[in-house]
Amino acid sequence: MSDSPALPAVNREWHLMKRPVGWPTPEDFALVEAPMPVPGEGQVLVRNVYLSVDPYMRGRMSAAKSYAAPFELGQVMQGGTVGEIVASDVEGFEVGEHILHFLGWREYAAVDVKNAVKVNGALAPLSTYLGVLGMTGLTAYAGLLRTASFKEGDVVFVSGAAGAVGSEVGQLAKLMGASRVIGSAGSDEKVRLLLDEYGFDAAFNYKKGPVAEQLRAAAPDGIDVYFDNVGGDHLEAAIGSLNLRGRIAICGMISVYNNTEPAPGPVNLARLIQTRGRMEGFLVGDHYDMQPLFIDQVGPWVASGALKYRETVVDGIENMVEAFLGVLRGDNIGKMIVKA
């Protein structure tokens, strides 16, 4: 087996120790020293370099039935990561190459190459394959084009617009001919970012007043598309401003992820009848057939700087839980990434 020298004796990995009730706490997790993984047939040993923390991971910490299996108690968790191959007997996967895989929350992983994708750090920074050119980017692309049936001239409203998905949705809409793009965010700094860097036509701080009032002021002629990352009062406001045959793509509802009691739904759902509106949830995993088209179309925009992105990078795998909690609090601007 071809490999690099000086591998550590143990592998640090994060385990879920308790299922969170409401907001997760650091006590729900443990950083554990485990034996170094030994690659089997068709596997390579990978040193994880950049690890992703995402809101959807909160759902997998619950035992409730969902679209993905829950994390197991006392076992290492999972997540997207880009790593460097440090040992390989697999033809076509050489030491020093980088791959995208989903055995994150650990320093080293034995990765089945069937579940890995090579990435090229010379074409784009390695971290972008977790964000703007990765799962979050494809989420924005598929949700806007396929689920929300975006078309040129649409007025688009994005909640959580300074996050990794939301910021890309707004920019894609502008690049593809939206007549107006509006975003909501949770701080004045993020609002300025949306306007000054990402090119949104209007943006507002949802903490400074009722969302419905601020949305009506930003979109006096209504909206055609709402890309929902937040749920709650944002969804109700969007339904209230929806134009005839408007479309709502439900990507996430971060406002309710940590609720211990069911949150009340929008009180104005009947308005979907009046507007003949459509509301549809989606998961990026159903749309990987769009990935080649996504990379072909969006890759050049990233390379040219036409599509801008931000990353919030936290150093050290020991800080991974704090980075995850930061995502739930909205501390990040753009994609939250941990550099191992």
Account of the protein in words:
- The mean pLDDT is 93.
- The longest helix is centred in the last third of the chain and has 14 residues, at 291-304.
- Strands 1, 4, 5, 6, 7, 8, 15 and 16 form an 8-stranded mixed sheet that branches.
- Helix 5 packs parallel to helix 6.
- The protein has 2 domains: 2-128 and 310-339, Quinone Oxidoreductase, Chain A, domain 1 (Alpha-Beta Complex); 135-285, Rossmann fold (3-Layer(aba) Sandwich).
- The protein is built from 9 helices and 16 strands.
- The radius of gyration is 21 Å and the shape is globular.
- Strand 10 (180-185), helix 4 (188-196) and strand 11 (202-205) form a beta-alpha-beta unit.
- It has 340 residues and is an alpha/beta fold.
- 25% of the residues lie in helices and 26% in strands.
Radius of gyration: 21 Å
Report the mean per-residue pLDDT as an integer: 93
The level-1 CATH class of the largest domain? Alpha Beta
Task: Report the span from N to C terminus.
Answer: 25 Å
* CATH topology name of the largest domain: Quinone Oxidoreductase, Chain A, domain 1
Order of helices and strands: EEEEHEEEEHEHEHEHEHEHEHEHE
Q: Tell me about the largest β-sheet.
A: 8 strands, mixed
Please write out the topology.
Blueprint: E1 2-3, E2 10-16, E3 29-35, E4 43-52, H1 56-60, E5 81-88, E6 98-101, E7 108-112, E8 117-119, H2 135-147, E9 155-158, H3 164-175, E10 180-185, H4 188-196, E11 202-205, H5 211-218, E12 223-228, H6 233-241, E13 242-250, H7 271-275, E14 278-281, H8 291-304, E15 311-315, H9 320-329, E16 335-339
Parallel strand pairs: 9-10, 9-12, 10-11, 12-13, 13-14, 15-16
Antiparallel strand pairs: 1-5, 2-3, 4-5, 4-7, 4-16, 5-6, 6-8
Helix pairs in contact: 2-3, 5-6
